[in-house]
Amino acid sequence: MASEFLEAYRNRHELAVGWKQAGKKVFGYFCNYTPEEIIHAAGVIPVRIRGATENIELADAHLPTYCCSYIRSALDQALKGRYSYLDGTVFPKTCDMTRVLPSIWKRNIKVPYQYFLPMPGKSTDEAVEFLIPELRLFRESLEGYLGQPITDEALKQAIGVYNENRTLVDEVYKLALSDAPPISGSQMYGILLAGLIMPKEEHNAMLRRLPGNVPDPVANRDGRMRLMVAGSTFENVELLQLIEDCGGDVVIDDLDFGTRYYGSTVDESLEPMRALAKRYLRRIPCPCKHPTQLRMEHILKLAKDYRVKGVILLNQKYCDTHLYDRPWIESTLRDNGLQVLLVDHSDIGWVGGKFKTMVEAFMEMAE
Amino acid sequence: MDAKGENKPESQAKPPRLSSAAALGPLNEGYYRDLANAKQEGRPVVWVTSMAPIELVFAFGGIPFFPENYSALCSSRKVAAEFMEAGEALGYSAGLCSYALNTFGFTHLKRGAFGDEGPPAPDVLLATEAACATHPKWWEALQRQFDCPLIIVDAAYVVDSEALSGHQKRYLAAELERAALDMERYTGTKFDIDRLREVVALSDRTSELWDEIDGMRAAVPCPISQIDVFTVQFPLVTLKGTKAAVEFYEPLRDEVKQRVESGFGFLPNERFRLIWDLFPVFHNLRLLNYFGQFDATFVTDLYGNAFSGRLDASDPFGSLAERYLSFFMRSASVGKAQIYVERAKRYHVDGMVFHANRCCRCFSAEQPEIGQILREELDIPSMVFEADMVDPRAYDDAQVKGRIEAFMEMLEARKYPK
Ligand code: SF4
Ligand code: SF4
Asked: Which of A260, A314, B248, B401 is in Cβ range 3.0-4.6 Å of A343 for a Cys bridge?
């Protein structure tokens, strides 16, 4: 059952083409700061634009090689036509790459609709008041493009679906609170990824069928080490399997498509636009938002709740905002008695063997 | 003509000096003296990012200190490599902005550009995200290091022209006003709006003079060199909002004007006019002279302009907000390319040179696209060379010069076909 998720993710382009044939519109979006609920409420399926592990061939003419491999690969995939089904693309302002990419995208990837959402960098009350009219503008722009209104009803319904999704994913996370998690880190990874690329209703339905349906992936738990993976994003599934092969169990994460994306529900008692503005600014922040302290506390809390012994800090090379925090996160984790492994990652040209050696050495040291 | 410039000794390519630039030395010394004495005199030292409102700092009687500018100084004084290594040893990734790495290094080692103890520690840290998203990140790191107050001014992004009058401007202006209140709290000095107006008026005048000087580079032949421009930029960056800056640029403007009126070009025989994008190579500014050997000069760049911006003393916060919002980096479109296209026409440009400053992704990532836009729209060719503004370690002078030579040969064949 759990493998169905990863399979769906791997077939994401075929799935999207299927929805298109069924008459749906599909939007691609970058980054977990996109208020997907508004897109969903417009009757459009939002899918996360992801990179791949495939070599970069076309993007190098448009983006220097010293940009993060995620953005380079995403652009490369689009230039190769893998995202030709998109009716629109949405960019929220987060790191420098998300500011630079929209213009390059617009010139080179012909997508009928494109929107740049100027998300504030802070989470103050003023920032919330700033974001509300910005969200309204986005909503109006979408309405204009689609030629039909997005009703408050639809918005509330979308918020409900997304909240349910967040709750269901959290329930799966919580399975790993037990000493013998019935779900492995790599299986969890598939679940998280699938949620990025399919309608949330479908993801919810799959999640509801899940508990009780997963056999314990590990027969013998002697000497296994509970771990957290923290960082921005990555594409290589093998990565988690290799950690498991080395005797590590990734029981929780602090990733861009993990707890930072699936955490923090929207307050359904508030007016929807205000509720969304609050949720997107008051959620567990990515490092591009301020203050950063909240994320540190989030990591420490998860480490404690999920009883991890070590944290793998996995950062994309050239992912500046994350890398500025790294020495601080590393030392804070160590001060809290946790083992830390630093990994400079690139989705492209990743060598599993090298990674495995690192993890093995780390686990030996940690014992 | 000799495209390779082989027969020309390098000295011949050295531009004649601007006599009014001689005032730069005392100005510089005065600034560093003030900085060193700040603590004694009870003046707050405020470490600022570029695109931070130093006008506010001056209005509170403080002294702004730019780690970026100082890192450039470390680079030209050949101490940056050691500082960067120290920064990397603290766990900061080698790919990060070399200004930041250099700053982490010299603050950790407690050493300065002149073999001294370095600048005084910050009393307040002031950052905006108007230049890049990494600024607040290293200011947060500095805050943890120095344990002093940090003010972050959040800047919205411009997606369309509405932003300059709309709520994006109001949000940023309110952020700036709040920063003034924070400064009041942190420095213990009462905020005086009239004092700010005075500073803003001086800042505006400085930018006006700068823009005037910069605009005169459109003259054929070009009156001043790119090295001149980079060198005389210090007051624009660090002293904008003081009388001293205005007093520096007034005679300089007159001198450049005089050069233009008399038809004086700093190159004896100007044959090519180029655009420079964007950062100086601080550890090797002389590279710019190398273009002189091919009778080529730079007539425009956006590096200096990044620090200039007109303000309105009757609306200090609103006009500061407008200024940051209209900065080309605040746009989600290739705003920079449009500026270059416009300038390429106005400044009679033959080609463009991109310094691919590896560590500054936000300014370099668009370069391939800008090059394509210039080629498509105006048939202007460009070249790219990779370097780092501060870090000399991976710089290959021979390779860079080889590229320049090939590019200039190509331009020669295009502009002056045999
Ligand atoms: S946050 Fe990091 S990985 Fe994500 S787009 Fe920005 S630089 Fe790339
Ligand atoms: S990354 Fe670029 S814009 Fe940001 S501080 Fe460094 S040089 Fe300046």
From this structure: A314
A297, amino acid identity: E
| ipTM of predicted complex | 0.95
* Euclidean distance between CA atoms B404 and A127, whole angstroms: 47
Q: Which of B51, B329, B369 to mutate to test the interface with A (most CBs of A within 10 A)?
A: B369
Is A236:A120 a contact under the CB 8 Å cutoff? Answer: no
Burial of residue B216 (number of CB atoms within 10 Å: 0-12, 13-18, 19+): middle
On average, the pLDDT of chain B sits at 93
Which amino acid, B44? P
- Select from A322, A325, A343, A347 the residue to mutate for testing ligand 1; criterion: most ligand atoms less than 8 Å from CB: A322
What is the maximum alpha-carbon separation in chain B?
A: 70
Distance CA B64, CA A301 (A): 39
- Which residue in the set A120, A324, A330 is minimally distant from B154, CB to CB? A120
A136-171 tens-digit pLDDT: 999 999 999 999 999 999 999 999 999 999 999 999
Taken as a whole, chain A contains a residue count of: 367
Alpha-carbon gap: B327 to the closest alpha carbon of chain A (Å): 14
Nearest residue by C-alpha to atom 2 in ligand 1: A319
Rounded mean pLDDT of A36-60? 97
Q: Of B109, B102, B107, whose CA–CA distance to B76 is shortest?
A: B102
> In this predicted model, what pLDDT tens digit does every residue of B361-392 receive, in sequence order?
989 999 999 999 999 999 999 999 999 999 99
How confident is the model at residue A274, as a pLDDT?
Answer: 98
Within 8 A of B388 by CB-CB distance, chain A residues are: none
The token pair that represents A236 in the structure block: 């290589």
A70 pocket-lining for ligand 1 (C-beta < 6 Å): yes
Name the pairing type of β-strands A113-117 and A88-92.
Answer: parallel
pLDDT at B243 over 50: yes
A306-334: pLDDT as tens digits:
999 999 999 999 999 999 999 999 999 99
CA of A330 to the centre of ligand 2 (A): 24
- Taking a C-beta distance cutoff of 8 angstroms, is the pair B352, B336 a contact? no
Residue nearest to atom 2 of ligand 2 (CA): B360
**Distance of alpha carbon A23 from alpha carbon B104, whole angstroms:** 55
**Nearest by CB: B134 against A290, A317, A320:** A320
Sign for the pseudo-dihedral over CA of B260, B266, B272, B277: negative
Model pTM score: 0.95
- Chain B window 178-237: which residues touch A at a Cβ cutoff of 8 Å? 178
Interface test with B, best of A96, A107, A131, A317 (most B CBs within 10 A): A96
Taking residues B227-238, what's their average pLDDT?
95
